[in-house]
Amino acid sequence: MSIIIETEDVTKVYQMGQVQIHALRGVSLIVHQGEMLAIMGSSGSGKSTLMNVLGCLDEPTSGRYSLEGMDVSSLTKNQYADIRNQRIGFVFQVFNLLPRTSALENVELPLFYDRTGHIKDPMRKSRAALERVGLGDRLDHEPNQLSGGERQRVAIARALVNQPSILLADEPTGNLDTRTSIDVMTVFQDLNDQGMTVILVTHEFDIAAYAARVVKLRDGVIIQDAAVEGRRDAKRDLVAFENKDSEDRDMMGHDGEPAFFTGHGLRVTSPPQQTDVSTCETDSEEEKII
Ligand SMILES: Nc1ncnc2c1ncn2[C@@H]1O[C@H](COP(=O)(O)OP(=O)(O)O)[C@@H](O)[C@H]1O
Ligand SMILES: [Mg+2]
């Protein structure tokens, strides 16, 4: 698979009056097309800053960033904005949907920011994006007529409407209950199965277990980059979750929650290119990163 994202020694320094905050201190990361990556780390470790750099919302202070082979560090502000609009889809913890506005119109919105003026038939594109996330029968619903999971699906459809090459999601399940979180992860896994590159930030091990690779940040540097062992299937987990009182007793943790929600859901293995191949469980990792 081709390289879609490559950062080389990226730093980001925020100047707050006299104080400099080193949010990223030299991040080198390669992501291939079609990967599904979870970025983890405690609060303040630089996860959102990294997402903003990767999504061309924020320029690095130093270092190189190349997106689909193009060095984006050297672009003008307008070119930068165009790249962001055309190639990146963003999903956030808060859905940022316009109230009293239908799902269809909410999803259409990014199309009107396109400066090329080539967008034809925005309504058809919006409908297709909503169908892709399973909301073909909710086109005219306004946000307050939708459940939390459906609202996040609308936000994902809005991120997809420009047909981006990468989907970036910053804590997309941060405001959702367990069942709805797994439900939203089925959407990300589906999109990933269709070839979409997905990068999501989460601090929940159970959510990271749906990704194929986990990158952990601490104090603005990558402290671990590993493949997820036995990646979880969100659709299967959703069924198990809904049937948890019946035939799926073997999925249960001792406290009655499915095993995948007891904090033991994530196992990682160092990627093959590293010589030190080790397996670690999140129990010990949790202490290290939080
Ligand atoms: N716009 C900003 N201005 C100043 N400091 C910032 C800004 N954004 C983030 N920071 C600081 O940079 C560090 C990393 O923040 P962030 O990337 O938001 O972390 P995370 O998403 O992992 O919680 C923190 O110390 C934070 O306070
Ligand atoms: Mg953050």
Structure explained in plain terms:
- With 290 residues, the chain is of the alpha/beta class.
- The protein has one domain (3-289): 3-Layer(aba) Sandwich (Rossmann fold), CATH 3.40.50.
- The protein has 9 helices and 12 strands.
- It has helices at residues 47-54, 77-87, 103-108, 122-132, 148-160, 178-193, 205-208, 234-242, 282-289; strands at residues 3-16, 19-32, 36-40, 62-67, 70-71, 88-91, 166-170, 197-201, 213-218, 221-228, 267-269, 279-281.
- The protein has an 8-stranded mixed sheet with strand order 6-7-8-3-9-10-11-12, with helices on both faces. Strands 2-1-4-5 form a 4-stranded antiparallel sheet, with helices on one face.
- Strand 4 and strand 5 (70-71) form a beta hairpin.
- The longest helix is centred in the middle third of the chain and has 16 residues, at 178-193.
- The relative contact order is 0.15.
- Residues 252-264 and 272-290 have low confidence and may be disordered.
- The structure holds adenosine-5'-diphosphate and magnesium ion.
- Adenosine-5'-diphosphate (ADP) binds at residues 14, 16, 21, 23, 41, 43-49.
